Structure formats: structure tokens, C-alpha cells
Amino acid sequence: MLPAILLLASIGTTSAIPQETRTVTANPASPTDEPSYTRSDDFQAAMLTTHNRFRSQHSAPDLEWNDTLADSSASHLDSVATPSRCEFAHSGGPYGENLALGYADAAAGVVAWGDERRGYDFGSGEFDDRTGHFTQMVWRDTSDVGCGRKLCGGGDDGGARWFLVCQYWPRGNIVGSFTEMVQRPREGVDMGNAAGAVGPGGWWVGLLVVAGLLL
């Protein structure tokens, strides 16, 4: 079975960054549909729509597409993903960064990040490595996003799979700012609805690795 994998890296240049890595595993599943979003304009629209649907439900302003972030995401993918292999690693750059691997539909990776909200403790106002993708997605001060995706090989079944990278500016997940920057869901929001943004391949939670929490 091909696991879906998630990775979060939120990196900054002016704050101390402890190089801690935490791993949380959950039951993975294997995608069954062919990958989608082969057109760049469709991909960009899907990324913005899915991100902003979650953000609106948590009182955060819409993100705008940033070509510099998209180019940075694509450049990182070019360095780690080829038709024969997928090297699952973060870029270590100056932006907030979410990664996902193994989804038949690239937008389903974004939905999986957002669905982490069901496990986030809005009352604590603290970072949780199980929900770090979600908190970066809805971080109120983040204004720009740019994403890249690439089909790469090396899966257990020998087939190609989507490797998705989204980078954010300004970066989120800054310790001491969670209460202000990560808002509770608006009244009437169904936390189990996954924002109504699940793609044709569905979505699956696999492995989450967090590196580079900002202090």
C-alpha cells in the first residue's frame, strides 16, 4: 500500500530555530484514482480555493498567489524529486512550508493539512506537531502562498505519485502568537466537513514530520 505522507517545515531567518524532529504516525491508505491538475491554471486555482475556504472558516483573510513562492517550491521539487525517486525533505528556506506526498489529487493534500484542525486545542494557544500544517494554513498574518507539484517515482508499488509543496509568507507557527493568529472556527462551521474540498482521489493521513519550530 502506498502511504500518504505529510511534512511541515516553518523556517525563519531572524529567530532561533531548534532543529527538533518529531514523528507521528497514523493509519495510511493507498490512492486509487489517477493524479489530476495537470494544467497550471487549474492547479493554482485549486490551491487558492482550498486554502482560502479553510481560512475563511477561521476568520483569516484570503491568501494571494505569489509567483516567487511558487518558483521556490518548484525549485525545491526539482532538487528532490525525479521520475524514479521522491526524496521527502524540506527546503530549509526562509518561508513557511508544508509538504505532502502520495495523494492522487494534489488538492487533497491541502485538505489533509486543514483537517488537522479537528485535533487542535484552540484554548491552549500552543504549537502542536500534529496540527502544524493547519496552523500555518490559517495563520492570520500570512498573506501569500505559492505551491508546486511534481510526479515522482519510488513508491512501494513502483508507480508515480504527487509530491506537493506550498510555501507561505510571512511564515507562521511562531511561538507566543498562536492565540492571536489561529482563530476558532466561525459559528456553524462543521469541523468534520473537510471544507468541502476533497478531490476525486479522496484524502488520507499518513506520516507527519515537523522540523524547525519558530521561537
From TrEMBL:
GO cellular component: extracellular region
Name under which the protein is recorded: SCP domain-containing protein
Domain SCP: 42-176
Signal peptide stretch: 1-16
SUPFAM superfamilies for this protein: PR-1-like
Keyword list, A-Z: Signal
InterPro entries per UniProt: Allrgn_V5/Tpx1_CS, CAP_dom, CAP_sf, CRISP-related
